[in-house]
Amino acid sequence: MCMYQFLVAVRQEGANLTSADGETTSHLMGMFYRTIRMVDNGIKPCYVFDGKPPEMKGGELAKRAERREEAQKALSQAEEQGNQQDIDKFSRRLVKVTKTHVDECKQLLKLMGIPFVEAPCEAEAQCAALVKAGKVYGTATEDMDALTFGSNVLLRHMTFSEARKMPIKEFHLSNVLAETGLSQQEFIDLCILMGCDYCDSIRGIGPKRAIELIQKHRSIETILQHLDKNKYTVPEEWQFSEARRLFVEPEVADPADIELKWVEPDEDGLVAFMCGDKGFNEERIRNGAKKLSKARNTTTQGRLDSFFKVLPNPNAGKRKGYPVRPADDVSFPVFALAVAVPSAIY
Amino acid sequence: MFEARLAKGAIFKKILEAVKDLLTEASWDCGDMGITLQAMDNAHVSLVSLNLRSDGFDKYRCDRNLTMGMNLGSMSKILKCAGNDDIVTIRAQDNPDTVTFVFESENGEKQSDYEMKLMSLDLEHLQIPETEYACVVKMPAGEFARICRDLSQFGDSIVISCSKQGVKFSASGDIGSANVKLAQSSNVDKEEEAVTIEMQEPVSFTYACRYLNFFTKATPLSAQVKLSMSPEYPLMVEYAIDDIGQIRYFLAPKIEDDDN
Lengths: 346, 260
Known about the structure:
The complex is a heterodimer. The radius of gyration of chain A is 22 Å and the shape is globular. Chain A is built from 14 helices and 11 strands. Chain A is α/β, with parallel strands linked by helices. Chain A is 46% helix and 11% strand. Helix content of chain B is 14%, strand content 46%. Strand 9 of chain A pairs antiparallel with strand 10 (125-127) of chain B, so a sheet runs across the interface.
């Protein structure tokens, strides 16, 4: 999720923030302050790092590599012409997270006392497994895959900066399923039809057609039987069932073996790491550590839903559209955050 | 056709004052038995449950059960137009898009009506089981409001502890700490000023001041307030509304983290 964002956003005059000897530190700064902001607001975050990408994702990754090359070309062109705006624009697209960045983030989290999980494969899949096991309340990511993987609660815009005034959006899978009248299996098929990272989709079928087809035929197989092949081109050797398998039984670590523990931050360790090696301001880091430690000792507000049962709503399903409710006060505060890690480092 | 007429119209004014800060909108469910309202705040931390029995009204007619979604801010604006001694009548058709409030002055010389658009709300309903609470404290409502207001200057939360000796409210924060103890009253001459405690086992829980201060907005409705607490259960704060019903607030406690 966020490491790219930090490396893209936290920069001055086209270059990343660096320590005295020229190492990038944007990612650490972003991670540090954003985590503190969450903890300060009573959220207990748990970061989940991507593992190696599934083989099926090769196509999508190749596309991304292609786009990178294009950006590289455009950048050299812009440099030749001396167009500062374009140089900025394209160098942003070339940002790459390296293994060092990832390791440094993990080290930082350890010092801050924040737990993280290394997913064997897709982070969103691991998050969904943690949600299902009741280890965390929801997944915070921009990637809608989290719902497809079966995470019941998805938050988007969780860590957007306050300046953007973007409300956090809370999606409930159960509501989505209830209102669309789909089962989880059908929902997965719908997502594949609308385009996922693992395989191509049918040209000419957008979200609107896709949901009509699924609601009528209930599975991709039946849709294919009824689809007018002259009108829509189905990709050759379309591997939708393989993609479906990846969503249904993704490779994840067993949540039962994962213990999430939030511990006291190591203030001196943080100062040594962030100030000694990376050249951050000591006072700010110490303040941050104090905030973390203070937040640990306050109590968390319980939610009524955990005491009283929600009665089935007789009006459910009458409303159109996806139920999206701004979660201005998220009070059951344990979240798994998916962290995207580039495949290149594996 | 739905019609409910209440001579003491001020009750409606007070009810709205008691809920409008906590809830922005809510559904009023009207049926044979009376009017009920149940809604949680946005954060799902507290819940309001209002019950007005049909026999408490001066005139009550409800041909078909109906649910009216209202914006409470707008409703409060309308009720502010009613005088304290006005007779209030709420009226709606069987499948209504709007609701009408009629205010009549005591001497019948002035009558005003206000029509408000209804909204269709999709709210979750919670099932609240009846329980035996470990501790039930009854105390003057004004005293409770005062304690909540005073203690919220010290911290975000108030600890309410109840034992045989009495009930203790405490808060602590950056400027220091505060404790208020109330003993069971010995003379029960004035029922309204009495503090009574019914206790199965001593309890102590932490609650957010913010919400308690929302609840005490109901103080003008009733001389006494009832606080009910049990382990693993939300706090219930109840105000009786004359002989027509009651308003109950439920609040989830603050929870100590296990790993601390």
